[in-house]
Amino acid sequence: MSSNGAPTSLEPQDPMPVIDYSLLTSGTAHERSKVIQDIGKACEDWGCFMLVNHGIPEILIAEMMHASNEFFNMTTEEKLEFEAHGVLDPIRCSTGFNPDNKNKDLLWREYLRLIVHPDFNCPHKPPGFSELASIYVKKTRMVAMELVKGVSESLGFEASYMNEELNLDSGFQLLAINYYPSLMEFDGKRGLMPHTDHGLLTLLYENGVPGLEVLQNGKWIGMSDVPNAFAILNSDHMEIFSNGKYKSKLHRTIVKDKRTRITLVNPNGPSLDTTVGPSSRLLEHDTCLPRYLPMKYSEYLKLQTKLTMEGKHAFDKIRLL
After folding, report:
1. pLDDT tens per residue, range 48-91
2. d(C-alpha 131, C-alpha 124), whole Å
3. Which fold has domain 21-318?
4. How many CB atoms sit inside 10 A of residue 121's CB?
5. What is the pTM of this model?
6. What burial class does residue 129 get, using C-beta atoms within 10 Å of its C-beta: 0-12 exposed, 13-18 middle, 19+ buried?
7. Cα-flanking dihedrals φ and ψ of residue 51, to 5°?
8. Are 238 and 43 in contact (CB under 8 A)?
9. What's the first-to-final CA gap in the chain, in angstroms?
């Protein structure tokens, strides 16, 4: 920490964990056992890791980035067709803050948020965007669900345990596309304030322009130096379900590069009707008290949105210890 108590931006001594996805899905029994241990350690010690050899084609990601850029380069009038405000609206296009707001510390971005599972939603333009997004989210969902199996085993459960307990077959998946304009387009501060995500795991891919930072041991550090890798972040319901063992990762975006930054972000959570609390099996095994109140996932999403606008955190309402 700095002398005034604010997190510093110094690099830590330990390197960011890197997980090889191929060892989880097609490695030997020994390799899979080792990578499950590594996932557990990364989730517990860091709350995040970089994922390599994930099997999602680079050409598909590049096409998604290009289509996303085309969407945000449409006219304001065209994008207003997809403007929405409710957290559960299937398509939401907006900006990070009101440009009339006088708070100069606010950070700017545009975003498009799509509910893509259990039902797929996407704008009908630009041409081909919906088809690309449909393919992309199916592949990222497959990766996320395999990672959840690994997390489940790392907690001492069967691979299928979290899927069954949290009804992940009907799970809530978003595709959030964040657009941080170049300095030629916007000369103000670009980024996203510190926050955690709802759900279990968030997958994030950036277009090569750095900006993602995570808070680790009181220091803000970059998560941007592994080629063709997804950043994987523990989210709020991972912390709740694990009863605090795997903490939700605080992260932010600070864009210093002059170029346009685009990120493809996939929060993955339980079904909207699922009530999530600490795992009963975990509480029984560890003979510990629950640290969080159970809450229906849809209600948590609404609470999180409301409190975030007030500068608060939903955990403040459900944390017991």
Report:
1. 999 999 999 999 999 999 999 999 999 999 998 999 878 899 99
2. 9
3. Jelly Rolls (2.60.120)
4. 17
5. 0.92
6. buried
7. -115, 120
8. yes
9. 25
